[in-house]
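Dig into what follows:

_____
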Amino acid sequence: MKKIFLLSMIMFGCIFLCKDINAQAKKPTIMVIPSSNWCKKNNFKIVYDNQGRKEEVDDYERAFNESTVLQQVITKMGSFF
């Protein structure tokens, strides 16, 4: 009786493990972020006063909305995956 119980538990364990192994792989998600150098070269920077010191921050939102080159790069990278 113990052998039958042990054998049935092993079989159920194998069924659940094989179910997870055969699951389809998820499509990877990538994020394309332009470099600070590219943003500065293409004038996608925000300059603000931080307690008397001027700081430059990359304006990614405007870059994604206005740059056709960046949109083409994103499309091309998406096609690889």
User: Anything to note?
Assistant: The mean pLDDT is 80. Residues 25-80 form one domain. The first strand starts at residue 45 and ends at 50. Residues 2-21 form the longest helix (20 residues).
